[in-house]
Amino acid sequence: MLLDVQGLEFHVGKTQILRKVDLGVNGGEVAGLLGRNGSGKSSILKNVIGLYRPSRGQIRFKGVDITDSP
Questions:
Q1: pTM of this prediction exceeds 0.70
Q2: Residues of the chain predicted below pLDDT 50
């Protein structure tokens, strides 16, 4: 699996923004995030690319844990 997100959670202060997000994308696939305003699409992407640090969960890229990488 190229990108594997398991149990991703994200908080801002005491407010939980993301709850138990799982996402998997294999090489050669195209994935999209759909949802209404305020549903957490941007927060998921910002956690995956390292702009935000998740409260819990794991993000792996090509099998390497990048959860705490900048």
A1: yes
A2: none
